[in-house]
Amino acid sequence: MQIFEILNTSKSVVLAGHSLGGGVASLSALWLLSHIQTTAPSTSVFCITYGSPMLGNEPFSQAILQERWGGNFCHIVAQHDIVPRLPLAPSSPLDVDRLRALFVQLALQLSDENKAELFDKVLACMEARFGPAAGDDHQERGWYWPFGSYMICTDKGAVCLDNGTAIIKLLYLMLAEASANSCMDDHLKYEDYVTKVCLQYLQKRRLLEVSVSESSSESGIALALQSSRISSHQEPVYGTAVNCLATARQLGWRRNLNTAKMAVSLSKINPFRAEIEWYKTYCDRSEAQLGYYDSFKRRGASKRDFKVNMNRLRLGCFWDDLIDKLEKNQLAHDFHKMSKYVNASQFYKLLVEPLEIAEYYRTGMHREKGHYVEHGREKRFKIFDRWWGNRKVGDEESKPRSKYASLTQDSCFWAKVEEARDLIFNVTRKPDPGRRLLLLDKIQRFEQYANGMIERKEVAVDVLAKNSSYNLFREEWRCLKSQLQLLPSQFPDFQDGMVQ
Amino acid sequence: MMGGRLGDSIGVREEVIQKACKLSMKAHEKSPGKPYVHEKNRGPTEAFFAFPGSWAVEDWYSRRPFGEIKVDVSKFPSMKSVGNDEIALVNEAFSRRFEELLSRSSLATEVEKAMSDRKQIVFAGHSSGGPMAILASIWFFEKYIRFNHYQIPPFCLTFGSPLAGNHIFSHALRRENWARYFIHFVMRRDVVPRIMLAPLSNVEQGLQFILEFLNPKSPHYLQYEPTVASNFLLSVMRNALSVASRAACYLKGCTNLLLETVASIVELSPYRPFGIFVFCTGNGKLVVLENPDAVLQLLFFCLQLSPEEENSEFVHGMFKQHLAYESELQESLTMQDVTYLINLVDVPLSADARTNDAAALNDLGLTTRARLCLRAAGELEKQKLENQKKIDSNKDTIKEALKKIQEYKMSCEIRKVGYYDAFKIQKENADFNGNVKRQELTGILDEIVEMIKRYELPDGFEGRKEWIELGTLFRRLVEPLDIANYYRHLMNESTGPYMVKARPKRYRFTQRWLEHAERKPVGFSSETTFWAEVEELRVKPYAQVKDKVLRLEEQVLAWVREGLLGKDVFLDESTFNKWWRTLPFDHRSGSCLAGFISK
């Protein structure tokens, strides 16, 4: 309750905690972030933890990144502190006692033996996973994994990292330099570390022991490692640390670069999309009165048809590539929230999915795999549905449409038409009465849905073209209904619902 | 390019600098009634205006935390970014003092007198007199140079001046090509130029003391209090560090998301350096640089103390540096040991290096970390130039595509339809091809706009004539098509009117470019949105929009006469004509456009 009062009066909220308190702070911050997303999006939340144990696994960290909350968390870790690293080792009841002793600040009473055992165990676990002998794939699901930024403090300065792999490697490398005593003592020395770190940057210090390279990136990394107290004399530790910082930095840059490149590719594929739009206008006006969907479904071998099909495939490739990059985490974390892509993908979906459906039914895939909506829909369209659904809706007023939409607002409309026609076909094959009722009910529901769409003018003109599949459906449905009315005794319930 | 003697490279003779410095110090001594010192040289060249400082805290900070306000654009119309339309921020206390000075003193008259004598005008100030000189110079540029009323740009010379404006100052002055007339001398260890990097709450107490210490008229002049002084220094340094390292993260392209959150919680000083900075190392050498990002880094790093310097005596010396400009400059202007840090990308990282710049960097006491920041500032500048090169390489593609659209427009006229209406109907192949060209063009322009939004192009970009012209041509030819597309898809029904909800930045920006370059009021060049006006008016009842219709008709008449709007808008089948004919007869018969539309 107190926090709600604070939210009403403050622009920003800072949560902080030491040790287990850090975990509580992180969880509170997460709760607060989820809460204010809808109520007070301009409030900023910042969470600082000191020596807090790791909290969640890799998907947990990924989810935080995707919400763009990574920047709201800063975990400060003293160079040798064992507590943040503890969750990386499986725990035993014995450890719990030791921890309790540690947490009630009785570190001194913990016997040297106990300290050593705990230290050895954690170090061994970390070494097994991140040491020189371990493979490169550290991100097994289920393991604890860092989220947000980590600031690792030493008596020489601090390094700040946001790349999970780099954080965990550095935590390992630095623990390897620790001792059973220092890894306990450090947990209680945060005040000291934090005060010193700030002063250190105000002072002029020269790079000692490190021979200065004239390359900016090399000396940048050398400075960072000097702050982490990993000196160039400690091979191979130094080399590993250099690599891991360099990789982390490149990853961050590549993400930005890819995001920028994507914008360029998007503008390059726009002309293909325009060609399809043009094709739609052409179809809707053609004398065959088939409409966009059916023209494509029944297309011949003309150059125009061929070209549109090529464009359909090209656009599909572009969006698949984009989704692939997104899933591999090679694009900005909040890429799927950028309105530019949300809008472009929605437009693409409305324009091109009817063609995908046409292709599906043209090639008879529904007979092999089942109907499109359930069995044939490409993953990308489902993803775009989600993006569109999650977008921030502004204050735009929604007036009723005065004309038919330029694109049918439900991109699966045609798939539903095909399904309904299939249902009619099934009814005419005279199944048993129970099933028959079920089918008729489904058809009726589709009809209601379609009428609603048309009434609200949410369909494009191609739906109403004289020879479109939709009009075929209506014709077939009318025939069926008149047949059914000849046999009213068999369907008393149904007839009641048929009054129009 | 810079090199050689300081006077030659910055365009101000050494005697002028010394004179300006002397007058600036003298201005402090003057009676409080006199708001500036004016010295006319008998000779044919310079007229000096030197401004005294003020030693009251409220003349430095108007309020917490940093006391900044938007500049008065009616007086300083150039002090903004053009496309983004971001107005520069200025220190309110300084700006208020200057306003008073301008309205209550004879400054304007005396300046005009000097102009009539064809003098080179020099504005100068020491300490908080510096910002007065800065604002007076900008005022002069805006009032006389911008309108070509006077051909000799003034010089602004400041000595130990506090920062007065935010990053838009630098951006705007560079765009207008005025930045090089602002020359700021800063002693390496002078704290005053850094004060504005700290919020008032952190320095309030110390500032009062320091101002007394520096004020020659105060009973506490030069009375020193070691603890207050060192606490004050520590606060300023701490804040300078925050500002500089935040900026350095940006320069180095750091991608950590933490920066954003911290920025929203910790309010950092908005003030940034601009113009040319001349750092005096204290041993007679001078280091000159123009890159504002690099200057900001130096403002912090030159202040860093090494362990052996952390004693009360040394700190006392630092505070006294603020009063030592005259003697220091006398020495260094004679010595002429000047280093111009031009190629920041290659500054040596090691203190042992033997290149030209190396000695100067050592004299400023720069660590490797500091040098990395200088390099990063250089890299960013280089990157901006490269971005510009890339953008420039698109010019021919744009021209080619615009030619295609021009041809399309003409082909439509032959068909007796305006290209706006043809495009809206989208019937012919040519309409489709026009649409493809439109998309190509908008892609290129949007990329440019994105870069401008993020300040990723050189500051001068929005002032370049060839781009203003190309942007205007693009806007005149393509915006009608964008509007046609918008209303063709009835996006006004789902999104709202084009002008309110949907006008793309590529047109807003290019319109502002032209209006700024031609010194025209906002909205002056809005002929390209004519069709959006028509589309909105035609769905409303006449009685409701009568005034708007009348105004639009007057504008149309003017635009058609100037050739900004083609006569194709009057064709029989055009949306405009069809709508116009539905207006009440009384209106039509009295309309100024009646002659254009066939009965």
UniProtKB/TrEMBL annotation, chain A:
Annotated Fungal lipase-type domain ranges read 10-88
Key words of the record: Cytoplasm, Hydrolase, Nucleus, Plant defense
Coarsely, its chief localization is cytoplasm
Instruction: Give every EDS1 EP domain span.
Output: 274-478
Where does the UniProt annotation locate this protein?
A: Cytoplasm; Nucleus
What's this protein's name? Lipase-like PAD4
Q: Which GO terms describe its molecular function?
A: hydrolase activity
Organism, by scientific name, is Sesamum angolense
Which InterPro entries does this UniProt record tie to the protein?
Answer: AB_hydrolase_fold, EDS1_EP, Fungal_lipase-type
Task: Look up the domain of life of the source.
Answer: Eukaryota
Gene Ontology CC annotations of this record:
cytoplasm; nucleus
Family annotation (PANTHER family): LIPASE-LIKE PAD4
Q: Some GO term, biological process aspect, for this entry: which one?
A: defense response
UniProtKB/TrEMBL annotation, chain B:
The Fungal lipase-type domain is annotated at 79-197
- Keywords of the record: Cytoplasm, Hydrolase, Nucleus, Plant defense
Does the record carry Cytoplasm as a key word? yes
- On whether Cytoplasm is a keyword of this UniProt record, the answer is yes
Q: Which GO terms describe its biological process?
A: defense response; lipid metabolic process
Its localization reads: Cytoplasm; Nucleus
| Full protein name | Protein EDS1B
Query: What organism is listed for this UniProt entry?
Result: Sesamum angolense
